[in-house]
Protein backbone atom coordinates (compact mmCIF):
# COMPACT_ATOMS: atom_id res chain seq x y z
CA UNK A 1 0.00 0.00 0.00
CA UNK A 2 1.38 3.39 -0.99
CA UNK A 3 1.45 6.39 1.30
CA UNK A 4 -1.22 8.04 -0.83
CA UNK A 5 -3.53 5.04 -0.52
CA UNK A 6 -3.06 4.94 3.25
CA UNK A 7 -3.77 8.67 3.51
CA UNK A 8 -6.95 8.28 1.46
CA UNK A 9 -8.07 5.38 3.60
CA UNK A 10 -7.51 7.41 6.76
CA UNK A 11 -9.49 10.35 5.37
CA UNK A 12 -12.43 8.18 4.35
CA UNK A 13 -12.43 6.33 7.65
CA UNK A 14 -12.51 9.54 9.66
CA UNK A 15 -15.31 10.90 7.47
CA UNK A 16 -17.33 7.74 8.05
CA UNK A 17 -16.81 7.92 11.81
CA UNK A 18 -17.88 11.56 11.87
CA UNK A 19 -21.02 10.73 9.90
CA UNK A 20 -21.81 7.89 12.30
CA UNK A 21 -21.29 10.21 15.25
CA UNK A 22 -23.74 12.72 13.79
CA UNK A 23 -26.31 9.97 13.17
CA UNK A 24 -26.00 8.82 16.78
CA UNK A 25 -26.52 12.35 18.06
CA UNK A 26 -29.75 12.99 16.15
CA UNK A 27 -31.29 9.53 15.86
CA UNK A 28 -34.19 7.99 17.75
CA UNK A 29 -34.18 4.82 19.81
CA UNK A 30 -34.19 2.47 16.83
CA UNK A 31 -31.41 4.42 15.13
CA UNK A 32 -29.26 4.32 18.27
CA UNK A 33 -29.64 0.55 18.49
CA UNK A 34 -28.59 0.35 14.84
CA UNK A 35 -25.57 2.53 15.65
CA UNK A 36 -24.45 0.04 18.31
CA UNK A 37 -24.79 -2.87 15.89
CA UNK A 38 -22.91 -1.00 13.20
CA UNK A 39 -20.12 -0.03 15.61
CA UNK A 40 -19.62 -3.68 16.59
CA UNK A 41 -19.49 -4.66 12.93
CA UNK A 42 -16.89 -1.99 12.22
CA UNK A 43 -14.81 -2.97 15.27
CA UNK A 44 -14.67 -6.56 14.06
CA UNK A 45 -13.61 -5.43 10.60
CA UNK A 46 -10.88 -3.26 12.07
CA UNK A 47 -9.72 -6.13 14.28
CA UNK A 48 -9.43 -8.25 11.16
CA UNK A 49 -7.22 -5.61 9.54
CA UNK A 50 -5.12 -5.31 12.71
CA UNK A 51 -4.60 -9.06 13.01
CA UNK A 52 -3.57 -9.28 9.37
CA UNK A 53 -1.04 -6.48 9.84
CA UNK A 54 0.42 -8.11 12.96
CA UNK A 55 0.77 -11.43 11.14
CA UNK A 56 2.55 -9.77 8.20
CA UNK A 57 4.97 -7.93 10.50
CA UNK A 58 5.77 -11.16 12.32
CA UNK A 59 6.41 -13.04 9.08
CA UNK A 60 8.75 -10.31 7.88
CA UNK A 61 10.65 -10.27 11.16
CA UNK A 62 10.11 -6.55 11.70
CA UNK A 63 9.68 -6.81 15.47
CA UNK A 64 12.83 -8.90 15.86
CA UNK A 65 14.81 -6.44 13.74
CA UNK A 66 13.79 -3.66 16.10
CA UNK A 67 15.14 -5.63 19.06
CA UNK A 68 11.89 -6.94 20.51
CA UNK A 69 11.87 -10.44 21.98
CA UNK A 70 8.14 -10.85 21.41
CA UNK A 71 5.47 -9.38 19.19
CA UNK A 72 3.32 -8.66 22.24
CA UNK A 73 6.10 -6.55 23.75
CA UNK A 74 6.48 -4.63 20.51
CA UNK A 75 2.76 -3.90 20.26
CA UNK A 76 2.69 -2.75 23.87
CA UNK A 77 5.43 -0.21 23.20
CA UNK A 78 4.16 0.95 19.82
CA UNK A 79 0.46 1.26 20.65
CA UNK A 80 0.35 1.51 24.44
CA UNK A 81 -1.61 -1.72 24.81
CA UNK A 82 -1.71 -3.72 27.98
CA UNK A 83 0.04 -7.06 27.80
CA UNK A 84 -3.19 -9.06 27.57
CA UNK A 85 -4.51 -6.82 24.78
CA UNK A 86 -1.37 -7.26 22.72
CA UNK A 87 -1.23 -10.99 23.43
CA UNK A 88 -4.85 -11.40 22.27
CA UNK A 89 -4.00 -10.03 18.84
CA UNK A 90 -0.77 -11.98 18.56
CA UNK A 91 -2.62 -15.22 19.36
CA UNK A 92 -5.18 -14.44 16.66
CA UNK A 93 -2.44 -13.63 14.15
CA UNK A 94 -0.73 -16.95 14.86
CA UNK A 95 -3.94 -19.01 14.69
CA UNK A 96 -6.25 -17.60 12.01
CA UNK A 97 -3.99 -16.24 9.28
CA UNK A 98 -2.27 -18.25 6.53
CA UNK A 99 1.25 -19.39 7.34
CA UNK A 100 4.45 -19.81 5.37
CA UNK A 101 6.54 -22.97 5.83
CA UNK A 102 10.31 -23.10 6.14
CA UNK A 103 10.52 -23.94 2.44
CA UNK A 104 8.34 -20.97 1.52
CA UNK A 105 5.25 -23.08 0.95
CA UNK A 106 1.92 -21.45 1.80
CA UNK A 107 0.14 -23.24 4.66
CA UNK A 108 -3.45 -22.85 5.88
CA UNK A 109 -4.33 -21.25 9.19
CA UNK A 110 -4.05 -23.42 12.30
CA UNK A 111 -7.73 -22.72 13.04
CA UNK A 112 -9.28 -22.66 9.56
CA UNK A 113 -12.94 -22.79 10.65
CA UNK A 114 -12.35 -20.03 13.18
CA UNK A 115 -10.58 -17.96 10.54
CA UNK A 116 -13.64 -18.24 8.29
CA UNK A 117 -16.15 -17.04 10.89
CA UNK A 118 -13.80 -14.28 12.03
CA UNK A 119 -13.38 -13.03 8.47
CA UNK A 120 -17.15 -13.05 8.02
CA UNK A 121 -17.72 -11.02 11.18
CA UNK A 122 -19.55 -13.83 13.00
CA UNK A 123 -16.84 -14.10 15.65
CA UNK A 124 -15.08 -11.38 17.59
CA UNK A 125 -11.44 -11.23 18.57
CA UNK A 126 -12.32 -12.49 22.04
CA UNK A 127 -14.17 -15.46 20.51
CA UNK A 128 -10.96 -16.34 18.68
CA UNK A 129 -9.00 -16.07 21.92
CA UNK A 130 -11.48 -18.36 23.71
CA UNK A 131 -11.30 -21.00 20.98
CA UNK A 132 -7.50 -20.91 20.96
CA UNK A 133 -7.39 -21.26 24.74
CA UNK A 134 -9.65 -24.33 24.66
CA UNK A 135 -7.70 -26.05 21.89
CA UNK A 136 -4.34 -25.24 23.47
CA UNK A 137 -5.31 -27.04 26.68
CA UNK A 138 -3.68 -30.25 27.86
CA UNK A 139 -6.91 -32.19 27.38
CA UNK A 140 -7.24 -30.98 23.78
CA UNK A 141 -3.65 -32.09 23.15
CA UNK A 142 -4.66 -35.67 23.89
CA UNK A 143 -7.30 -35.70 21.13
CA UNK A 144 -6.64 -37.33 17.79
CA UNK A 145 -6.12 -34.95 14.84
CA UNK A 146 -9.60 -35.76 13.56
CA UNK A 147 -11.22 -35.09 16.94
CA UNK A 148 -9.25 -31.87 17.35
CA UNK A 149 -10.33 -30.59 13.93
CA UNK A 150 -13.95 -31.52 14.60
CA UNK A 151 -13.88 -29.71 17.94
CA UNK A 152 -12.45 -26.60 16.29
CA UNK A 153 -15.19 -26.62 13.69
CA UNK A 154 -17.91 -26.99 16.33
CA UNK A 155 -16.45 -24.16 18.39
CA UNK A 156 -16.32 -21.90 15.35
CA UNK A 157 -19.93 -22.71 14.49
CA UNK A 158 -21.07 -21.84 18.02
CA UNK A 159 -19.22 -18.51 18.14
CA UNK A 160 -22.27 -16.59 16.97
CA UNK A 161 -24.49 -18.14 19.65
CA UNK A 162 -22.38 -17.59 22.77
CA UNK A 163 -20.43 -14.85 24.45
CA UNK A 164 -16.65 -15.52 24.56
CA UNK A 165 -16.82 -16.75 28.17
CA UNK A 166 -19.79 -19.00 27.44
CA UNK A 167 -18.06 -20.35 24.36
CA UNK A 168 -14.95 -21.21 26.36
CA UNK A 169 -16.97 -23.03 29.01
CA UNK A 170 -18.88 -24.93 26.34
CA UNK A 171 -15.63 -25.79 24.59
CA UNK A 172 -14.04 -27.11 27.79
CA UNK A 173 -17.03 -29.42 28.30
CA UNK A 174 -16.82 -30.55 24.67
CA UNK A 175 -13.12 -31.41 24.93
CA UNK A 176 -13.64 -33.26 28.21
CA UNK A 177 -16.36 -35.35 26.58
CA UNK A 178 -14.08 -36.19 23.66
CA UNK A 179 -11.12 -36.93 25.94
CA UNK A 180 -12.64 -40.09 27.39
CA UNK A 181 -9.37 -41.64 28.55
CA UNK A 182 -8.29 -38.54 30.43
CA UNK A 183 -4.80 -37.98 31.72
CA UNK A 184 -2.56 -41.03 32.15
CA UNK A 185 -1.19 -42.15 35.52
CA UNK A 186 1.56 -40.01 37.01
CA UNK A 187 4.57 -42.31 37.43
CA UNK A 188 6.85 -39.60 38.75
CA UNK A 189 8.22 -40.18 42.28
CA UNK A 190 6.74 -37.93 44.98
CA UNK A 191 8.62 -34.75 45.67
CA UNK A 192 10.77 -34.74 48.80
CA UNK A 193 9.50 -32.29 51.41
CA UNK A 194 11.40 -31.04 54.44
CA UNK A 195 9.32 -30.73 57.62
CA UNK A 196 10.40 -28.93 60.78
CA UNK A 197 8.84 -30.23 64.01
CA UNK A 198 9.27 -28.16 67.20
CA UNK A 199 8.60 -29.68 70.66
CA UNK A 200 8.60 -27.64 73.88
CA UNK A 201 10.85 -28.89 76.72
CA UNK A 202 9.72 -28.86 80.34
CA UNK A 203 12.90 -27.07 81.42
CA UNK A 204 12.30 -24.31 78.89
CA UNK A 205 13.15 -23.87 75.29
CA UNK A 206 12.40 -26.59 72.81
CA UNK A 207 13.64 -29.21 70.44
CA UNK A 208 13.45 -29.00 66.68
CA UNK A 209 13.74 -31.99 64.41
CA UNK A 210 14.20 -31.80 60.65
CA UNK A 211 12.23 -34.65 59.03
CA UNK A 212 13.70 -34.16 55.58
CA UNK A 213 15.99 -36.50 53.63
CA UNK A 214 18.81 -35.70 56.08
CA UNK A 215 17.31 -35.85 59.56
CA UNK A 216 18.73 -33.63 62.30
CA UNK A 217 17.72 -32.86 65.86
CA UNK A 218 18.82 -30.15 68.29
CA UNK A 219 17.82 -29.05 71.80
CA UNK A 220 17.55 -25.33 72.49
CA UNK A 221 17.52 -24.20 76.14
CA UNK A 222 15.85 -20.87 76.89
CA UNK A 223 14.48 -19.07 79.92
CA UNK A 224 10.83 -18.26 80.35
CA UNK A 225 11.14 -15.12 78.31
CA UNK A 226 12.45 -17.08 75.35
CA UNK A 227 16.05 -15.87 75.74
CA UNK A 228 18.88 -18.34 75.19
CA UNK A 229 20.49 -19.40 78.43
CA UNK A 230 24.08 -18.44 79.13
CA UNK A 231 26.65 -21.00 78.23
CA UNK A 232 24.80 -22.32 75.22
CA UNK A 233 26.42 -21.34 71.93
CA UNK A 234 23.98 -20.23 69.25
CA UNK A 235 23.53 -22.45 66.21
CA UNK A 236 24.69 -20.25 63.34
CA UNK A 237 23.50 -22.78 60.80
CA UNK A 238 19.80 -22.67 61.75
CA UNK A 239 18.95 -19.24 63.24
CA UNK A 240 15.33 -19.36 62.07
CA UNK A 241 14.81 -22.81 63.59
CA UNK A 242 16.23 -21.67 66.95
CA UNK A 243 13.87 -18.70 67.06
CA UNK A 244 10.93 -20.98 66.22
CA UNK A 245 11.90 -23.37 69.03
CA UNK A 246 12.06 -20.47 71.47
CA UNK A 247 8.52 -19.41 70.56
CA UNK A 248 9.69 -16.31 68.67
CA UNK A 249 8.93 -15.50 65.07
CA UNK A 250 11.42 -14.43 62.42
CA UNK A 251 12.99 -11.03 62.80
Strand content: 5-15%
Task: Based on Cα principal axes, name the global outline.
Answer: elongated
Helical segment count: 11
Strand order of the largest sheet: 3-4-5
Unreliable stretches covering 5 or more consecutive residues: none
Number of domains: 3
Mean pLDDT: 84
- Structural class based on helices, strands and sheet pairing: mainly alpha
Order of helices and strands: HHHHHEEHHHHHEEEH
How many extended strands?
5
> Major sheet, described briefly?
3 strands, antiparallel
- Radius of gyration (Å): 31 Å
Tell me the helix content: 55-70%
Q: Give the termini distance in whole angstroms.
A: 65 Å
Commentary on this structure:
This protein is mostly helical and 251 residues long. The chain has 3 domains: 85 residues, no CATH class; 74 residues; 50 residues, no CATH class. 57% of the residues lie in helices and 8% in strands. The strands form 2 sheets. The protein has a 3-stranded antiparallel beta sheet, covered by helices on one side. It has a two-stranded antiparallel sheet with strand order 1-2. A hairpin with a 5-residue loop joins strand 1 and strand 2.
Briefly characterize the structure.
With 251 residues, this protein is mainly alpha-helical. It has eleven helices and five strands; from the N terminus they run H-H-H-H-H-E-E-H-H-H-H-H-E-E-E-H.
